[in-house]
Predict the structure of Secreted protein.
Amino acid sequence: MKTMLFRRLLLALLFVVSSHVAAKDITYTTYQNGAAEYAIDIPDDILYGQGESGNHMGQIFKSADMDAKLFTYGIGNPDEKIIDDLYFDELNPEDKDERVFTYKKMSNDWFVVTGFHQGKVFYTKTILSESTGLIKKFYFEYPKAKKATYDDITIKLSKSFKEL
């Protein structure tokens, strides 16, 4: 019985260590969107671009198993909303009752909101460009069961997402 427990613990530890090492071994390629003037680092061999949108302002990236999806885009701001308005809108979507918000942070020209929705983790970062007035955003979602796999990738996405 003790031997079986020891083996299970050892296997769990090896899994955690190998997952952590694998996350560090990921290479990234910077996707630059010239039309919306933003850049973000995309993990090679994990998320695959599906081609830019018709207006060239964004792109969807999907994992091979379709479990993870990353939406990147820039949109105009015809109502000239300020960052506070955009943040309020993000925290009050139509499906707010179906979402659990776990982290929120706002700065002068950007904010982050993350949580759970329909069995998935979601992470979104929004930048309001002071120079162009464009709203630049990415939204990343993946199954809760794969949180350990995608958490380090999410951090890299967030840190690399910037205006050009």
